Amino acid sequence: MLTLLPQLGIGVADFAAALLFLYGLHRMASPVTAPSGIYLAGIGMAVAVLASFLYAFLVEAAARPYLPTNLALAIIALGIGAGIAWWAGRTVAMTAMPQMVAIYNGLGGGAAAAIAAVELFGVPMQSTAVLGMTLLGAMIGAVSLSGSLIAWAKLDGVIKQPVRIKGQQVVNGVLLLIVIALGVGVVVGLGAGVGASTGSGTHAVDNIMSRSNLIDLFFLSALALGILMTLPIGGADMPVVISIFNAFTGLAVGIEGYVLQNPALMIAGMVVGAAGMLLTLLMAKAMNRSVSNVVFSNFGAQAKHKQGKIQGSLKPVQAGDAGIAMRYAASVIIVPGYGLAVSQGQGKLYEFVKLLQAGGVSVKFAVHPVAGRMPGQMDVLLAEAGVPYDMIFQLEDINDEFVNTDIALVIGANDVVNPAARTDKNSAIFGMPILNADRAKHVYVIKRGEGKGYAGIVNGLFYGDNCSMVYGDAQAVLIKMIEAVRGLGLPAVA
Amino acid sequence: MDFQIAISGMVGLYIFMLAAFAGWVIIGRVPAILHTPLMSGSNFVHGIVVVGGIYALLNASTTQQQVIGFAAVLLGAGNAAGGYAVTDRMLAMFKTSVVPLKHPARGHRASVKVVHAKKD
User: Whole-structure pTM over 0.90, yes or no?
Assistant: First the structure.
């Protein structure tokens, strides 16, 4: 009877959590309802976590003497983990958001792997299917943990160059096979333990390779696989990688949920798994790559395409002149790229935009799906600077408007406005959806230097007759533009 | 009487299939402008793994299990709390200029409330 109420409590709480997660994510379909969506999901999480302490009434007999210690440990772990992560999440700069998401994601994968480890080191499981599922979740979780940490290191600049060794794919493939073989070994009971009385002959083998050693090796090789998988992938492909690992962690959580017979974990994990997969595909499409191409190949190796001839010359202009030209234009579309975020120029950009708007200029932002270091990051950075989201337009919604626009202002973006994606069949980026900035009547490009974009391709847009280059750090250039427009002393138009 | 749920065999697969489908449909409707908060939001949702961690830790009967269980709760709690913190922070930044007041966000929220009040 004593077990009845806790069971009911946990059941109801987990059901509520699963429902609130789904409804909360559903409300994220619009910027207006999204804040309430995450709030509802948060309530679901709080309810589920609080209710999980009811498990204290349901512990197995073997664990009952340890219950006070375990309860104290659980509360301490909750406090420390949540406290540090909350503080980090509240203080991190918006430009560092991709790294942060990578870390949190790795934590989730690690937690799933740790749960699997507790189960594996515990009472031997009855069912082969459950044991197999535990190991599968453990592998995916461990790969997600170590892979996410490498992704963090790359995004944070700790690891600067992709690390590639010869025969990388063969090594990874062999390692994957080793992980699977070790997992199978655990399932069929290789080294079932020293206690197993299988005769003196196998006894020695059991001593060298006990079940727990086998499990240790399994986890170590899974962690190594995550590291080796992620090391060769370039920094600019990290958004796709984070998205994949997000899906991985979701899968691992869902699978461990099955092992623990917890439907809330199963549903939440699988929803995230599907969401991560969908986002991964969207990202890869926006980058004109297949997912396998991101994971298994390296961009640099295939960028040996012949380049179409580029006519024209680069025409540098002064920042002030560019600013004044925009003040006298009727319509301006701004194409922000990662270069803007690097120079932290979003705030100055919006100040400049407000100046233009006060003068009656129509201003819109055009954001490419892969602008920034993770999907939608540029939208967040603009929102942080105070830009209302109804001024921000996505590629498919604004691309036809460039033709009728006086000025397109490209800031720190390159490949996403390269017309070669439309015209040059030999180009590595041919077929990638781009913003048609080149079709505007005039284009100003703010750029730090004459360097190439990530794809290492010369951008024909910069050489066009209708294009002027403004060289310099985005923020510094924007400050000059603001000063120049203010210097005109024009009255504001109501 | 027993409230313990037994999810065995194919039932698990059905739950996975339905949840994956729901996730795909729900996420497919989210506009690209919200993809970063969405990613960190779904990241937050798999922080529910902390519940599994608490279960595993409470049922630990060896020091080894206690240590690993502690790690599971620590990591899971970090995932959940951090995911919520950053998602909430990002979403609070999205403002509209529909009501061109000095404080667009405040003005807009006020107008939403008025609409609700009228409905009531």
Answer: no
